[in-house]
Amino acid sequence: MDTPHYKLLLEGMLGELVQELNAIGIHNPKNPQDWIAVPESMDVQEADTDLIADVVEEWDERQGLVATLEKRYNDVTRALGKIETGTFGVCEISGESIEETRLEANPAARTNIAHMNEEGTLRE
Length: 124
Fold this sequence. Notes:
single chain, mainly alpha, two-stranded antiparallel ribbon, 3 helices, 52% helix, elongated
């Protein structure tokens, strides 16, 4: 397995994720796995219910996007940690090797193809 290749891919992915997350949130200094959505603008001085509703809707969208990006960020940092400990490319369910085709498609994959549908059930 070409681990240095995957490390480069993962580091590039991590940089992109951090950039995206920084655009819509802040990194929680008390928990390195946690990102917090920040509102784009809360300058709602009028009692216009449509304007307030728009701000709340935009806030909800940002929180959803942060949650999605945060999960991906945590998967990528986990994969980079596995490279450092020598456990990269090992299925977290079966202990078998993760196929190269799966790692090429998703270098942060936590399971092999046989267990990919169960990956969402794994704990952080």
